[in-house]
Every structure is written in structure tokens, then in C-alpha cells.
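assembly run, all chains below
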Amino acid sequence: MLALLLAAFLPQGPDFTTEVRPILADRCFACHGPDAEARRAGLRLDVAEAASATLESGRRAIVPGRPQDSELVRRIRSSDPDRVMPPPGEHDALSEAERRILEGWIEAGAEYHPHWAFVAPQRPPVPGGDALHPVDAFVRARLAAEGLSPSPAADRATLCRRVHLDLIGLPPTPEELESFVADDREDAYERLVDRLLADPRYGERQARRWLDLARYADTNGYEKDRPRSMWPYRDAVIRALNDDVPFDAFTIAQLAGDMLPDASIDDIIASGFHRNTMRNEEGGIDPLEFRYLAMVDRVATTGTTWLGLTVGCAQCHTHKFDPITHREYFGLMGLLDNCDEPEWTIPTENLLAQRAHLTAQIESAWRELPAKWPATDKDGNATTPMAERFDAWEAAESARAVAWTIPRPSDWTTTLPHFRVLDDGSIFASGDATKSDVYTLELPAGTQPVHAIRLEVLPDENLPAHGPGLCDYEGPKGDFFLSEFEVHANGARIPIAAATDSFAGSPFASQKRAGAANAIDGEMSSGWSTNGEQGRPHAAVFKLAEAIPTGVPLTVTMRFERHYACSLGRFRLAVTDSDAAEARGHTALVEEALTKPADAREDAAKLLVERRFLESAPELADHIQHIRRLENQLRGGTTTLVMRERPADNRRVTRRHHRGEYAQPREVVAPGVPEVLPALPEGQPADRMALARWLVSGEHPLTARVTVNRHWASFFGRGIVETLDDFGLQGALPSHPELLDWLAKTFVEDLGWSQKALHRLIVTSATYRQDSSAGASLEARDPDNVLLARGPRVRLEAEQIRDAMLRAASLLSEKMFGPGVRPPQPDGVTEIAFGSPRWNASQGEDRYRRSVYTFQKRTAPFAMLQTFDGPSGENCTAKRDRSNSPLQALTLLNDPMFIEIAQALGRRLGASSTDDQTRIQELGLRVLSRRFEPDEVEDLTAYLAKQRTRLATGSLDAATLAGSDDEHAVENAAWTLLARVVMNLDEAIVKR
Amino acid sequence: MNPNHMAWLRGITRRHFFADCGVGVGKIALAGLLAERTARATTRTDERVLPPRAPHFRARAQAVIQLFMAGAPSQLEMFDHKPKLAAIEGKPIPPDVIGDQRYAFIRTDAAVLGPQFRFARHGQSGAELSEVLPHLARVVDDITFVKSCRTDQFNHAPAQLFMNCGFAQPGRPSLGSWVTYGLGSESDDLPAFVVMSTGSGISGGSANWSSGFLPGVHTGTRFRNAGAPILDVAPPPGADAALEADTLGLLRRMNERRLHVEGDPAIATRIASYEMAHRLQTSAPELMDLASESQETLDLYGCKPEEASFARACLIARRLVERGVRFVTIYHEGWDAHSQVAQNVRGNCGKTDQGCAALLTDLKRRGMLDSTLVVWGGEFGRTPMVEASAVLGRSQGRDHHPNAYTMWLAGGGIRQGLTYGETDELGFHVTRDPVHVHDLQATILHCLGLDHEQLTFRHQGRDYRLTDVHGRVVHDLLA
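ok done. output:
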């Protein structure tokens, strides 16, 4: 029956697309398909020329028009277990009908057609012209061909509930419902649709669908599963969908927003789409292995989301069914690969203003500092006057200060990080760090002997936590761990006599201070760290046991080794011929100033010296603490994970990985797209931006089809192509191919990729507005509603269920955006995860926020959402399961959160002064968006009466059941119990 | 009409029903189904969420109890006796032995650490165990020890997922899910796949018992240690049995009415799921009520009825299997001995040894061991080399070792008193009869009458299986 619509000109014999290829793909391609490595007998059946070529054996698998001469036919007809195809045990045997299809097809000429989804859609004519809504025209043409007729329109209340749930994810309030039902204007429905499309709740509902694909979560996943700040990404998606950013622009921002000229803040945030991959912070992992696994996820997710192809299948070998080779897979990876993955502090106007304010505060605090000099100490004794103390300090420190020279390194090597020398002679390291990094720097020969080497570790706002280290997982953010510091000259290792530091941090729970002396002890497991002082400069001074004479270049080697990557991000080396150098905690500028006589210092230098004195004076310690706190706040701000394209001189090289394994990199693969799809646009670099533009060029055969199909499924519970994530050869064929293509073309060319316009188009069709109940004959004829002779009837998604109940009880908060919140859930849910974290439920309004704002912990998802098939954020999800389990029943019946909701409803109804009938109807309107039928009212009334009696007589404890103890407890409890019943009806969690 | 198909339909979704049966059968089945359901709408039905399904071939085991020793126990302190390590303690292992093995914490030149405990042979089989397993020593003749286990992963979360799901990233169905998918459940009143944990949290998290791309009903059900075992199984405070009966009765009546009006079989499934929920509310407290166990049994396990412990979880596992539950996993976390391996192993054995041995003894004396497969082990083993780090405050520990470690199996279909596989004199590599994680998975499925190559599920155009494209049944382990 599909064939009727798919092929206008059927050749004699079975249809290739609908009948023949599914058999070949399912039973033959695994060994006789695109994958050359898996191919047996040199036979390939997915390409016409190859299938009819003469094989090594001299035979031809397919001789078009002559089944009797075709080896394929002989094999599928053979009774010899060694010859019959498919081989017994490996694949299901062919049925007689299937054999006849293959024979019939060969007899008719064995004609191949390209796979429908790889051919760009053409806009088909709308059947019957303009007489009907185009969606209805296509659907009804098909229904007519099947001898079916459409269902009548759903009643207005049902339709109102349906379109509310679909567009904004919430049922209508009783008032909204009544007002729509009473609205007799001709365009009342269209007005309702427009109102819903403009409702900010629209973005919250639609964003959740996108977040499934984006595998969004608020934690990193794997063992530690620590929280991450990613909610700005979620919020940006909500904003974009509310603003109806066209899907082409949306796509470009998601994949390459950071690369846009004049990228807006939301563009850069949107580039976090592929930062939603998991991050393993388990001690001792290889960070590059898990980066590779994240890349694997990115390729698969890109395939699912935009291409509707199971690209991931080509990770280990050429795709068994679709024409995507193993190399092409890594070509796609190459397009996405050339990026660094920073945690970005979002420079909102608010933040910039805050920083300006802080900076001013800090400056004025410094200025006021001298005036704070205490006259007496805490015991009441007079202190030394400031000027006197300064003179003594200045004299002592000047005497100790040494002159340093900052050489520009002549050359360097690193394990992986990429160096850039900055104007101040410091070095900024970016790119990939590993668990064992080595930096080797060549310093040119100087004009003086070298007695000591200073290593400054410097802050930089482009480093995690502003540095100085590159550490951004497992260990303290922004930390470094210098295991060993070595010096070579004249080919010999120069012993280091002593190492001093301005600060020794303690990066480990053992609380041992990790000082610079650890970096010269020959022991790799010990080292120097400045953890705790992130964002501040520090220095270590390494005093050589013997001076390196003038004119001898030297080599500095720094080793960073831990069970996590912790190399330096920004640092500077200096040398001195003084043999008295030590780390005194001065910055380089202060020390330089101190080497000069006081009257030779410039004003700026003087100020630095003075402030350095004030900073080190114990008399002012409390005030300095205050300034430190302000300075630390400067590093604050909301962060989010984004992409950043790598600099041209540090492009990442993508290799093919044999069998898809990280540990087996092979030849370099150029970035590119599979040959079966259109070529990348010429004249621009093959990068993320090129990929994004290619996907939404409008000529792409897949993107628009895949996208409209996913939207369609969100309304009808089923895609026109049922396999939302697979448009390849193993995927389902479209039930309404022309409708799909019409929608795809219309979406791109007429609607300008507007998602709201597409939604409007779909929900204004009569097809969407049909009654959803199926008579027995229709249910038997088309149980999955493929033909659309009725409206959709599907269980709500997890978030819709919770949100609908909250709204029914008038509890739902309208607060939008912000960090994830923790609605109440039973004890013991998150405790199963590593480290047994507690779930401290939010208080107040945050208990009742929309579910899209619920904190998503990957290894222990919010129980209610998981029970109703919500995703964990561990994989890209195009299509959720819709299971129906006893645990769902238990959740709705007994979960404290739902009891709390029922109690809120109970209080509301219990406090009402209207009669029972009215209140029962209000309950129906709130929870089911309809009035109860008389027999239902009778049942509900009887239940209510019975429980009321039991509550009143004390046979049931009213205060406990109502959740509050007051004079209304009996009434409240009775209505709570009735609300609980209605909330548990199948209908309450169904869109119909 | 096949009654199994009927029940299957009720339990899962229409989509699956038709996928399984083909549309032709579906049409007929559905028409009949509606009529039938309408007819007996008010009677208690025999509907099951996961009806039992026939295995591929004769099953030796009906149920599995998986004792997952999360964190990775040290085989060198418990099972794999390597005196040579004591002889060369303090010296590094030759680089050619180490090859390109990667480690989490230690450097490959770390020194060897000798066994921390004395070993002795036990039972008729002469199985070698260390002194920290006195209880297990008494039941060694029921056990097959596999000393030649190997895995691909050396980090906890990926390795735990690999052991459970055959794949090191989240998203694939777990062993327990595959088993209930293949065999359904024998129990009407309890979940088919139950997960317990008595420790400090599990590295891989809930992905370890996820149904992955299988239908959601195959997800393992967590049993909590405190409060009602199943989330939300307890009625709300203040509710009594009469109220719950009224409530569920009214729900059923009203749902049935909608079934008549709307004709959607999903409503019938919803009704059935509330029935099972109701049964769970009775069966779960009954299950957890250990008062019916004799003092002798409690003493055998060494557990207190009200106190969560590994041993109590073992006893509950027996009770679950007795009631038809198909797959039980008990996690005991805390084996990750990066420091003080002796203390770690002694402590964890103190918590688990008696429970493990009691479980085997108890199953055996009740005639259940023949049909219950018990699998003990962690996600990988531990290094022959010492882990020590001044800055981390670690000493006398062992790092992760994926190359060779020990697991044991007992009961349904497994040989008794066998020690299988060998490692080299350093316990570094397997030298005989390697058993890869995928082989173990294939063997477990085999014991249950399932062919790991046939137990597939089509997802994204591909037939997935637990063992990916690997795995072989280790027939040597089978009785």
C-alpha cells in the first residue's frame, strides 16, 4: 500500500524501495553491503553495477531480467545449508513471499533506485488544490485510498486541552477552557493557537524537546557526576524558541555560535550544544580518551539530530547498511574536532557593571588603607607608626631584592599544550593537557651568569578559575602541580640547591602543603601547587647549586604529573646573577621597584611598593582580607560550557581510529561529509561553521525532513517516518512521503524555517483537530493511527505530567530561568550515586517550578521523571519510550510530591463554599479539562461521602491526610482524597 | 490467540505487541482483546507486566543473584595466591611484562607488593583462599572460581557499565534488563529485576541497571535500605487499607468507563499496572518482613532484620528469588583499595564473607541453588604493584588492574568445586583460559537458556546484543 503513493510509475514487478531494498538491507547488506572489510565473496548488493558484475567465481549474483541465471536466486532457493543464503543461524531465513519478491524484481529488470531520503525533496502538488488545508489534503487522499474516512472534530474542550499540552506543555485553566469553549468567533481556535504560540511557556515546553536531543543535564556524568553550570544553555534555548529564531539560524548557533562574526552572548552560549557531553572526573582517567568519547557522542548526536542517520554505526567500521564509510565518519568528526572547550564566564551587562563597581570598591579600599593603620593593637598597646614600619620594611626588602632578567625563550617543546608568548614575556598555554605533561624551554645565553631561576605562575581570565593552572576536572579548578623543575646547561643537569615559594597550596585532602621544594626532590608524586590562591600571581625561586656561566644557553624542563591533568596555563621565567634570590611574595614589578633607590622609582612603582607593604603588614590583615574577598568576587559570575575554535597554528589533527578505539589512531583524515550527501560549500574552511551552514543550506535532503518529522511526532505521537532517528536504509519508510516532502519544502521555503509557523500549520489542520477515540473497527484496522483517521491519543511526557498537576492545583510557579531546582522526592534516590549525595529539596516557590528547571543529575535522575521515561541526559534522545508501569502508578498514588499537590487541591476545593457537584466539576476541569458525566459524578460523590464520614468520625485521620491541622481538616482531607483519585485517572496523564 | 501475547501486550505497549506478532495477528488479537477486556472488566485478571517467556533452549538457572563488588576487590589478597610477589617485594615489574598497560594512579615502575594474607586450600576441591574468607572456605566445593577474568576498562564507572551492559558508556541495556527481556518474570507481585546497594554509592550510577533502549519496564527497580523498599510503595500517611481499596476500586471503575468510551487498549494496560501496583503494596512489606525467618537462618547470615547490611540484602535476595524474581543485583561498594589494601580487604570481607557463604548454603538447603545462578565479582582487579603517594596520603595500596582478576560463580548450571584459569607468577597476565567480560556475559545468559547471539533488540536499524559482536560461552564452567 505504501508503494501506491511512493512510486508514481511502478515498473513491472515489486517496488524496489518499499519491497526489495528492505529485504536486501536486512538480510544481505551486513556481508554484501557498503562495508568493504565485512564484505564476503567480493559481492556487493547495495549498488546496481556491483550486484550484476561478474564475480571472482565467474558467476553473477544478479542478471537483470533472468532470475534463472542469477546466482542470488540459486542461493536463496538452495537447500544445501552450505550454499543457501542468508546463511542459517546468522540471519532469519527468507520467507517464500520474500524470495518471490526478489525473483520478481530481477525478472522485471532489477532496477535500483537511490534511497529516498538521500534525494532532495521536491514539493509535490497538494491533492485537490486549495480546497483543503494542505495537511488534510494529503492525509485524506491517503485515507480515501484506504477506504477510510476522517473522524469528526474533537469537542472544543478536548481540543483546547490538546493544543495547550502540545504547544505550552500545560493544560488550560478552567477559566481559559471555558472562555475558549464559549468563544463563538469563527477564528476562535486560530486566536487560541496564536495566543499559545506567544506564551512564554511555549519556549519551556519546546525547549524540553530540544534538550532531549542535546542530552542536557546539570552534572558531568560518570563516577563523580559533579554539578556543572550549564543552565544558561537551557535558558538560551528557551529564549531562542520563544523568539522563534528560525531553525537555520538556530542550528548555526548550536553548532558554531562562537564562530559567528559579532556573535551575541546567546550565540556563544548556544555553542554549548556539544558541550552537553559527559565529563569523566574519576581519578586517574586519561582525559584525552574521554574527550575522544565525547567526540564520538558529538558525531552520533549530530547524525541523529540533523541527519536522522545512525552515523555512530560507522565509528568502528564502515556502516553496514548506509553508505557511510569508516573514513567518512572521521571526516565528520574532523568538522567538529577543532575546538577547545572552555568554561566561559558570561559577560552580561550586569556582570560588567558589577565588576566595574567592585574594581572601584577595591581601588577605594586600597586608597583608604593607610588611614586604617591602627593606633593600638588588640591588647591596647600603642603600635609602631606606619611610616616608621614602612621605612624599616622598605629598607629590609630593598636589601633583599634582586634584579631579574626576563629572557624570551628561543624555542620550546611540550607534550601537547600550545604556547603563545605574550607581550610581557609570559607564556600562555592552551589546548590539550594530559596526566603527564612536560614543558621544555630553551633560554638563550645571557650577558651574566645565572645563579637562580624564577618561575612566576600568573593568573589569566582565559584560564579555568583564572588560573594559573589548566586543571579543569577532578582536581582543583585553575590549579597546577609542578612535579619537577629541572635545569640543563652544556648538556648537563644543573643541580638545584634550594627552592623557595611565595605560597604553597594544598590540593589534596591530606592537607600537606605542597611547596616548591617538592619540585626539586626527584619524586614525581610530590610537587608545587598554589591551590587556594587561584587568580593570584605567585612565584618560586630555584637557586642553582652552581652558577651557569655567561654565554651559556640553558634549558628548563617542567614536569606536571598527577592522576589528573594539571599543567601550567600561564607562567614566566626569569634569571638572576644574584646568589641571594628567594621568593619573597613580591610581584615582579614590586621586586623590580625595590631594586631601585626610593627616589629613583616612578610614581606607579612607588605606589606598588607602598601597597605591597600595606598588604604584608600584620596590622592591616583584616582589611587586606576584605580586599581579597572583593578581588575574589571579581572572578565570579555565571559560567557556562561553550566551544572555542582553536587558533590556526594549533589545529587539531583528526585521525581515523581503527575499530573506533581511542588507543588505535591511524592515518589523518581531512574534515568532510559523506559522499552520498551534497558536498560542503566551496571556498570556506571545512569546520563547524561549514557543517552548520551545509546542514541548513536548504538543499540538504535530510535536515528539513528530519526536523519537520520530529515536530510532527510531537503532535501525533508518531512520526511520518516512525524511526525519528533513522532515515537510513534500515529506517522506516514514510507513511505519507508526499506530505513529508511538502512539509519540508514549505518549512524551508515558505515558512523561513520558523518553528512557530510550522506548529501553527500543523495544529490548524483538521487532521490534528480530529476526535481521538477509535471505534473498535478503526482500532483494529490501524491501531497505531498511522493513517491518521483519528486524532492523537498518547501518554503525556514526564514533565507534562508533573507540570499539569501543579497547574491543576494552582501551585505552578511562573518563574522562568536560572539554576536547576530540586522539587521534593523520596529519600534514597540520589544516595545510590557515587558518594551518596543528599537531595536537599528546594523550599518555597522553587518546589513548584516547571519541570524543565528540575536539577538533572545524570547518575541518579529525579525519580518521578525517570519513572515516566524522562531521559538521563546520558544519550541523545530523539524519541522517548512511553512505558506504562506499576511504578508509575505508585508514584502518582503515593509520592509525597503528588500528595502535596493533592493536598493543595484539597484545600482549595475544601475551602470553596459551593456545593459538592460544582466542586467535583471544578476538579474535573482542573485535572482533566472536562466536566464529569453523570455516572462519574455519582461514583465520585459516593466516594467523597464515604470518606467524609470516615474522616468525620475519626476512622481516618483528617489532619494527616489533609497535611494541615485546622477546623477545615475534614473537608480538606476529603477533597484531597478525591483529588488524588482524579489525578490518578489514566485520562489525567494522557493527551487525547 | 496466544495468552502470552495478550499479557505481553498489556505489560508493554501496543507498539511492541505488533512488532512481535506482525500486524495481521495484531488486528485479530486486538478486536478480540477489546471484547474480552470489556467482558471481564470487573474481575481480577491474571494480567502480568512481564509474563514468563520461553528461553532459547533448556535453562539450567531460572534466576540470577549478582553480588557486585564495586570498587574492585583485590584478587591477590583473596583468591589468587602469588608467593612470588612476596619474594620480589619492593622491586619493579619488568617493563616487558607491563607492556603498554595504562594505570589510573601509579607509574608503571611502581614496586611489587607481596600478598597481605596467608592462603590455604579448602574442601575436597582444594580451592585456595586467603584467611580473610573463613565462611566462603566452607562452601568452596559449590563454587567455580575463575581466576582469569579480563576486562577492557580500567576506570570504575566505565568498567562497571562494561560488566553490566557490555559497553563502557551509558545507554545500553543492562544484563538484568536483557534477562527480563528474554525471560520475563515469574512473579506477578514483585519487580522482575531488583537492585540493592548497601554501601557508599555506585560509580556508574543508575545506568548500571538501565533498560537502555529496551522498553522501560525492563529497568531494574531500586530497593532502598531505609523506609519502604520500593519508592512510593507505602500509601500516604493516614491512609488505611479500606481507603486504598476504595480508591483503587473507584479508579478502576472510572478507567474502565473511559476504556469503553475511547477504546484505547493503553487504558487497559493502565488498569493492569494499577492492579500490580496494588499487589506490590502487599507483597513488598511481606517480602521485607524477616520475622518469618528462623533465628537459625538469621544467624547463618549474621544479619539483624531491621538493620541494612550486605548479609540482610543476601537474605532478601533469596526471598526475592523464592518469590519468582528473575534477577537481583546487590552492590557492595568500598573495595577501591588505593591505600592500605590489607585493611580494606579485611574490612570488606568482614562485611560480606558470611553473607555470601550463607546465601549459597541457604539456597542449597532449600533446593534452590540448582536453579539460581550466583555471580560474585568486581569491575576489574588490582595491581601486583603497590600504590603509595605521600601527597595523597596513600601507602600499601593497589591500583586498578584490568588484565587479570578473579570472579566466582555458583549454582544454576555451573560446575562445582572448579578453579578455572591461571595467571602468571606475578598475577599480572592471564596465562591460561582467559575469560573476558563478554564471555562471562555469554555464559550467564547460556545458563538461563538464552543464546547471547540470538537475544537481540533492534535499535537505530541495528540488532544490538549484550555482548556486541563478541563473547563466547565458556563451556568448561558448565556442569
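Confidence is low (pLDDT under 50) at residues 1-11 of chain A.

Residues 287-307 of chain A form the longest helix (21 residues).

not gonna interpret more than that til we talk
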